[in-house]
Amino acid sequence: MPPTVGVVVFPGTNCEYDVTVALKSIGADVELVWHGDCDLDALDAVVLPGGFAHGDYLRPGAIARFSPIMDAVREFADRGSPVVGICNGFQVLTEAGLLPGALQKNKRLKFVCAPTTVKVCSTDSVLTCAAGSGRELAIPVNHFSGSYVCDGATLKELQSEDRVVLRYVENPNGSIDDIAGVCNETRNVVGLMPHPERAMSALLGSCDGEVLFRSLLDAAVQPLKRGTPARASTDALTPMSRQVL
Amino acid sequence: MTADPRAHQPLHRALGLTDDEYGRVVEILGREPNHLELAMYAVMWSEHCSYKSSRIHLRRLPTEGDRVLVGPGENAGVIDAGDGIAVAIRIESHNHPSAIEPYQGAATGVGGILRDIFTMGARPLALMDPLFFGPLDDARQRWLFEGVVSGISGYGNSVGVPTVGGELTFDPSYAGNPLVNVLCLGALPVERLVLGTATGEGNLAVLLGSSTGRDGIGGVSVLASAGFESDDTSEDAKRPSVQVGDPFEEKRLIEACLELINSGLVVGVQDLGGAGLACATSETAGRGGMGMDVDVRAVALREPGMEPWEIMTSESQERMLAIVTPQNWPRVREICTRWEVRATVIGNVTSPTGSSPGEPPTGRLRILDGFDGPVLADVPAASLADDAPLYRRPMNAPNNTHPPDDDPDNLPAPPDCGKDLSAMLSDSEWVYRQYDHQLFLNTVVGPGGDAALLRLRGPGLPPSDRAIAVSTDSNPRWCTIDPRAGTAMTVAEGLSNLACVGATGHAVVNCLNFGNPEHPEVMWQLSECVDGLADACTKTSLAVVGGNVSFYNESGGVDISPTPVIAVLGLVDVLRRPPPGVSWHDGDSIVLLSPADPSNATRGDSSLGGTLWGARHEKRYGTLPQLDLGAHLRVVNFVRNLVTAAVAGDDTLLSGVHDVSSGGLALALAEFAVRSDVGCTISGVTGHRQLFNESPSRFVVATPHFDDLANLAHTHRVSARLLGTAGGPRFVIDGSVDLDLVEMKAASKTRIPASLGLPTEPLYDQRGTRDFS
Fold it and tell me: Which of A18, A113, A202 lies closest to B441 in CB terms?
């Protein structure tokens, strides 16, 4: 049976259709989940897609973190199930405290919709487990607030724990350390600014998003394969992640 | 109204009605109108809403076609795209609001056009924005340009509709009055089509969306239907007439309305745009041959103390009027609550009544103060929408349109054609990088291409391998010299652009941007333009399915150049691969395709009248090249068939294709080189006339199989002339141009950001973000 992925829809979300099309194209079942719901039990993975949840008013993700569904997402993640936030979804996950750091306005203070190349820096995450380490992927970005920022200690932690999963080859927004995507300590929650759903067809310029969604589906049906060579250290496993294993 | 500085005038004049128009209102009502009634007539009979100066001309346009489902007059034109899918399209101007408040003016232009599309039951899938400003060496133009682009980006991206193309023109003609046009395209299953009609006595009129405030009052009359004075104070005075947009409200409104329509819960839907509730209530009732009772007290207000006339004419954004049966009202309310969209019953549909014995019954629009309260206004609903006066305004051809001193053909050859060419290169990337142009996964060719090419897919649509293509074109230089021929050439260019992506043109929408219609020269320009459009569309089997006329684009009494923006909508039956695009490869033969008709060569094709090159040398007149639509179609069809086969996945002779337009052959070749990052060597094209003339019906193509292409072209009476070969790091046209490709690319990429005083280098060259590590 194919895994069932929940795609969360906040008022103002606008990439839910695209993510649904992308996931279905590689065999997933998809259910749209309304932000006012609070049950994710029947799902194998959850994606928070891009858009402008609650209009991005106040700042991106700042209101969405209070939507009822976010408690369910937190519990879902705490159980070790895969959660991926794309673009606005990444912003929501940082606001909700499920991922460290924040996404601030792009360095040039302009919206950027552009092709980018990202490098797979860690294969030890639910979004990159099927991608080769070091592989470069052509995946576009589309955001106003995509410049990843965190304090020095957090950055050191992300680096030493191999939690920067994707880096830009040519940084489009001023992100610290060229970070395009990070994961949590237990590696089952991943946020990224690029839009893999926009890179699923040669007709549209790239198929490189497919390997990321395939990773997610793999992770949805089986526990993460751990200790890949790309990881700097396996010492950082927390009790929660051991529980997953 | 006591605060109105024009209060010393009679009220009707202060509201923008002439004495004759006032007399007509008295005649219709059989009495003097009260303030509320007068306010409603003033906005509905404004030039913007009533097309009173242009309507008699627009009747000459061909509106019939095999695929046309809905023609002009509804909220949007609709064509049958096949596979059970209908495509809705509309274009509008938001020129004057953008001139006063560029961010909100452009943003609410986007919001307004979206509502026109989803009103029809169509999911808005793409936006395009033709923009016209004065040269950027002026600080005000930079403010306008940056503000407009930010407004489109801020609203369009957030509301979740990609902006897939447009046009960018800088010309002194627009320094006092920029043009901001916006086109929207949507799609729907054919059977879901709904119209803005109120029927069924007792059905409810439900106002959806935002609350109603004092923003935008008189937008259509005070703002859109008068020109700008030369002093800036008039703009400050008009600023309160600009509306403020909320894309998040609009996004929820789109989802709620489409769900209501999908669920079959509405009888009719109408957006609230110009003239607000007065327009939406009278038009829906008028179209249905019914009347409507509207309770102004039921309308949710943004601020206390609003007068009934303010409520009825407010242009507050993000509102829709739905006509709903009483049985369906609870479900409608439920869906709106889920989407956090306000839904209020503000009125109900009434049967026509006789106003006096012996007269046929008419639907009355009655404005009430409480459903059982006093009647504040009582007018025939259809009279607001349909009985506006139609003017046959005086027309005169301008004198001396061809002063020999202003003819670029009288200029000597420039000392350095390469320098002239380099100065024309301008990439609009700075603009379109700020637009989400990829949402819905349809954009195969986006901004910067000859035409936008989109897969015909989207939420709720049946599966299809078809594609739609849209090109927006305008050429104020051509239309200044000869508005009739210039408009026809603009249509021809649209078809060329569609051919470059393999699409066959089916329908046209137009946005006719002109000066003050009270100037006889402007009315002559409009009339000529309509004739040129009608003639070109008839000869090329295009149906005009919608349009917008924007008058009073003037500043300090000076009219803008006539600027008809023509959008051609085309279809591709099977799309499996991207079209070749503006790209060549090392070793490709570079070929010019044009009509093989020898008589064409003797028609003064090398005239420089109306060219970009001429305008850059301050010579804006002269003679336009001739357009032969029959010969044009021959070349267009030849190119299109080659590209259609390529996008269907068949083997193709072409590695690249681009039409020759502004900037002539030289600029077409230069754009090829810059975009492919491959130079070329061209021979046999000598002198500035051959390089820069803009004679129509020509394409540059690149092919690895020149002989096959030439043979095929010959059988279609198309001339295929070998110009040279692609390759190398330089752009060389023997005897005229020798440029370094790297410098050309830099000139093209940096032109706009440098003009704005912004950084021109890519961000990733300036690391410095690693300080934390």
Answer: A18
CA–CA separation, B345 and B335 (whole Å): 15
Determine the number of helices (DSSP H) and then strands (DSSP E) in chain A.
6, 13
Short-list A129, A103, A148, A134, CA closest to A217: A129
**Which secondary-structure segment (H or E) carries B125?**
strand B123-133
pLDDT (0 to 100) of residue A107? 93
- Residues in chain A closer than 8 A to B154 (CB atoms): 111
B436 and A168 within 8 Å at the Cβ level: the answer is: no
Tens digits of residue pLDDT in B148-165: 999 999 999 999 999 999
A9 membership: H or E segment, kind and range? strand A4-9
Q: B347, B292 in Cβ contact below 8 A? A: yes
SS3 of residue B237 by DSSP:
helix
Place of tokens 């008589």: B599
Q: Is B434 on the interface with A (CB under 8 A)?
A: yes
Amino acid identity, position B772: F
Q: Which residue of A has its CA nearest to B763?
A: A172
Q: Which residues of B touch A54 (CB under 8 A)?
A: 248
The full length of chain B comes to 773
Going by the DSSP 8-state scheme, the letter that residue A51 receives in this structure is B
Distances (CA, A) of B664 to A91, B605, B653: 47, 11, 24
3-class DSSP assignment, residue B498: helix
What is d(CA B307, CA B84) in angstroms, rounded to the nearest whole number?
Answer: 47
This prediction's pTM: 0.94
**Catalytic position from the list B12, B57, B94, B632:** B94
Fold of the CATH domain A4-244: Rossmann fold (3.40.50)
Q: List the structure tokens of B274.
A: 């110009």
Show the tokens assigned to B611: 């060219």
pLDDT(A237) > 60: no
Contact status, residue B617 vs residue B608, Cβ threshold 8 Å: no
Percentage of the residues of chain A whose pLDDT score is greater than 90: 89
| Torsion angles phi and psi, residue B253, rounded to 5 | -65, -40
> Would you place residue B769 in the very low, low, confident or very high pLDDT band (cuts 50, 70, 90)?
very low
Question: Residue B397 and residue B406: Cα distance in Å, rounded?
Answer: 18
CA dihedral B15, B21, B27, B32 (to 10 degrees): 20
Q: Is B767 in contact with A171 (Cβ distance < 8 A)?
A: yes
Q: What is the mean pLDDT of residues A207-216?
A: 98
Phi, psi angle pair for B658, to nearest 5°: -160, 140
Buried b (16+ CB within 10 A) or exposed e, B393-425: bebeeeeeeeeeebbbbeeeebeebbebbbebb
Cβ–Cβ < 8 Å for B111, B271:
no
| Alpha-helical regions (H) of B2-81 | 11-14, 19-29, 35-44, 47-50, 55-58
Q: With beta carbons under 8 A apart, name residues in chain A contacting B753.
A: none
Q: How far apart are CA B607 and CA B408, in angstroms?
A: 9
CA distance B688 to B693: 8
Alpha carbon B234 to its chain's center: 27
Beta strands B291-295 and B319-324 are unpaired
